[in-house]
Amino acid sequence: MDVKTFRAPTMQQALAQVRRDLGPAAVILQTREVNGSRLLRWIPGMRQIEVTASVDVNVPSRLAIRTSEPAAELPAERPARETRETREPEYRSRERDRLSEQLNELQSMVEGLCQQSRRDGRAEIPEQMFQLYTEMIEAEIGEDLAREFVERVRSETMGDELADPVLVKSRLARMMEAEFQHTGPIRVTPGTRRVVALVGPTGVGKTTTIAKLAANYRLREKRRVGLITVDTYRIAAVEQLRTYADIIDLPMKVVATPREMREAMQEFSSLDLVLMDTAGRSPRDEVKIQELKTFLGEAEVDEVHLVLSAVASAATLTKTAERFGTAGTTSLILTKLDEATAVGNLLPLVRSSKLPVSYITNGQSVPDDIEAADARRLARMVLGMELAAAR
Hints:
Radius of gyration: 31 Å
Number of domains: 3
Structural class: alpha/beta
Helix content: 40-55%
CATH topology of the largest domain: Rossmann fold
Strand order of the largest sheet: 6-5-7-4-8-9-10-11
Number of helices: 12
CATH architecture of the largest domain: 3-Layer(aba) Sandwich
Shape: elongated
CATH class of the largest domain: Alpha Beta
Mean pLDDT: 81
Order of helices and strands: EHEEHHHHEHEHEHEHEHEHEEH
């Protein structure tokens, strides 16, 4: 039997090695974390995931192999001269014994691998759910989170139901759906001004998203909309928004100081919706975030949407949401879902931030490629059951 062991920093990379070397028919015998003490796992490169796999596992019985004919009994006294006929049964018997011993050793080795996996600090993954577990890993859902979902599905699924992949995946999708909260689109009441600001790091698509929202509310909803930008750091961003404002026929103000912000808000007092574009801020720049908070306070914003790119890592998304939380964020807008190879990284974000999702965007087209967030659709996208641009 060809048994191979693969090591990689993550489960996803280890499984990729298995598929590359052994093909899709490979059987996973064991997964475990090596060099995984609490001290060593914080040292870069020390944490390794070990996967043992084979393409031809066939665990035999411990019973000796039976032949079609029983072995001939040896005579009480051995003839002085051995012939070919008397030597051949003895030779076959020795071969059977040797083969049986090898098979028993193989059985013991496989059982030892299974026992070692049980002794590892992690819960075993049911055989029926291992494929689903690997799919979650490939969807960039962290290993710990994927195991948590496996355990939850197993605890809520009775007996033979685990063997039904459609039922299991449907139950998993409902669990993930519960992870996402959503607000629906911005509620605009004619005659009552609503001020909405978009904040976030650089390069996540705030200006394009502002243009999409403005075009939809002005052209489709027939609301009176105004634009304000405080992104005076990037001349190109101001010109881009001004171009959109001219095309859609919207009033626009460029604000550089808190006083200019107050004046702009007074001029826009009769509008239904004021959309504010802000400069991209590094989540590590506390001074700039406090400056942003001052502008938002002067504008007396009703909603602060944190715009984040779905192509960022889970750790980056989580930390960015935490830092911008001091600016009073009320919801999330997730952009560039069409560029992400997988969106399992969104689960830690919504868990840690506890913010609902208001919109998702899946392209650069204005006013298209934006939609109000839906928890069921997000869950299906995480599991690869639906594409971002499916609608």
